[in-house]
Write a structure and sequence with these properties.
3-stranded parallel β-sheet, 9 strands, 34% helix, alpha/beta
Amino acid sequence: SISDPDAHSQGEASFKWRRIPHPEEAGRDATMAALTEAVDSAGGADKDLGLLIYRALTRRGADSLLPVVEQRPRSSLGLEGWVLCDLQRSADLGVFLEDCDLLIHAAAPFRGAPQGIVDVAIQMGIHYLDLCDEWLYLQNVLGRDSRAKEAGVGILSGLATFPGLSAILAAELVREWSAVKSFRLFYSPGDVVLSSHAFMGALCEMVGAPVTRREWQNSIEVRGWDEPELVRFAEPVGGVTVRNGNVPDLDLFPLEFGC
């Protein structure tokens, strides 16, 4: 595993960690190939967030669910009534969205993905939300906010662990504070839920990539995965080695909280 399994003590893992070559030693391509093979052998996309949302809505009695997928799903996934669609061709997507009330976009990765899906939703009067964790995509979606409001459509972007959950936690934490000077953000992926190809690919893309870190409203250029630091989380997580990473919070929090 990329992270040290000895540092992740959150109970029984959903699969046994496998050692893979580190990208600084073997190169990104070799690491990604090993990651893909490891994720596939552990169950592949069965833990995909879109699938979890589908199952959760089904359990709650939601009807008229239409899973839109880019690859034919295995029968073991239990998806019913699914349709195949190339999400790069937003016009094709519109064919399946007649009489749709809400579009949930969980087809990561969002880095470099087109925003045509959002435009189709606005044009057809369909409310939209996504699980985006990529700042540029989130910015582009929010840039359509005024047009969406004119159409009577609600759009919510970034409802992932970051910046969605992290921003909610931060807002609740500082609600009664007069001012915020800075945040230190640490993300520690657990070993209970299997990470997806998109998530692991996003982590690997950070290796050596430029990251802008803000300290006391000063911008500092650093490199992704550089400057390792041991952070002690509360039990049962314990000590975890963290490194520089690029997440939407780095841009969103200064705008939202003035820090």
